[in-house]
Amino acid sequence: MDTTFVILQNGVGNEEPFRNAFPYCSIVSCVIWVGATQDSPGVIRHTASEHTDIGLYPNPRLEAEVEETRLEGFAAMLRAGGTPYTISDDIQVKRWEKVVWNVAWNPLTTLTMQDTQQWLSSSKESVSVTKRLMREVIGVARRSGVALEYGLVDILMERIQGMPGIESSMQVDAREGRRLEVDVILGTPMRKAREYGMDVPTLATVYALTVAVDMRIKQALGGLG
Questions:
Q1: 130 and 185 both lie in a single domain
Q2: What angle do CA 50, 56, 61 make, to 5 degrees?
Q3: Which residues form the Ketopantoate reductase C-terminal domain (predicted)?
């Protein structure tokens, strides 16, 4: 009961295994916004930006005051280390916002081998395809009970258009011949869409194509990885 788990990992559904295994512990859930690249095995280079959204994965078995104290304890560690952060009252909204971002830019840059600006300026259809993909993922989030607004699409598009061209981590993995994080980035929204019987043609197409690229990489590695 005195233990607090801190999950510094993007994606959705990350907290459930910990809650199931440790039902009387607190969970601080975090969403990471950071630019980094893996130069070599075990060597990660920070390239741009740094921000962390943090919040509680509420435990009804514990008093709210106890959980808030534990959240503040972790926040104090971030302050001491100089890490920019924001405390969110609903961390699941932040988690799904990052999923919408990742589902768009990671596979689209990987499939085209273009950075974000190159992709967006590549044709008249590129922006509309990206927006449809984002809207479909937001629809899955809303069906899951997460209060995402469709206006997030315009917010994220404005953000990316104000940035220099970005090569996604998945794009770098593909170029370097490493297996892709298909399940981590695309798997959960795709599975939930199937579970809900939702029609998500753009998401389904991007998912299928990304899986195919990952399988090609797997075969090139001799079926390993």
A1: yes
A2: 160
A3: 90-210
Task: Return the pLDDT at 224.
Answer: 66
Q: Using the 3D structure, point to which of 38, 55, 87 is the last residue of a domain.
A: 87
Distance CA 104, CA 203 (A): 9
Q: Look up the pTM and report it.
A: 0.88
- pLDDT at res. 38: 75
C-alpha span between 42 and 139 (Å, rounded):
37
Both 68 and 136 in one domain: the answer is no
CA distance 62 to 145: 23
DSSP assignment letter at 15: S
User: Residues 91, 29: contact at Cβ < 8 Å?
Assistant: yes
In tens, the pLDDT along 114-135 reads: 999 999 999 999 999 999 999 9
Q: How far apart are CA 185 and CA 189, in angstroms?
A: 8
Say yes or no: 29 and 120 in one domain: no
List b or e across 50-63, with b for residues whose CB sees 16 or more CB atoms inside 10 angstroms.
Answer: eebbbbbbebeebe
Ranges under pLDDT 70 in the chain: 1, 224-225
- Per-position DSSP letters for 18-30, written without gaps between them: HHHH-TTSEEEEE
| Burial category of 102 from C-beta neighbours within 10 Å (exposed 0-12, middle 13-18, buried 19 and up) | buried
Cβ atoms 3, 11 nearer than 8 A: no
If one counts the domains in the chain, the total is 2
CA distance 220 to 196: 35
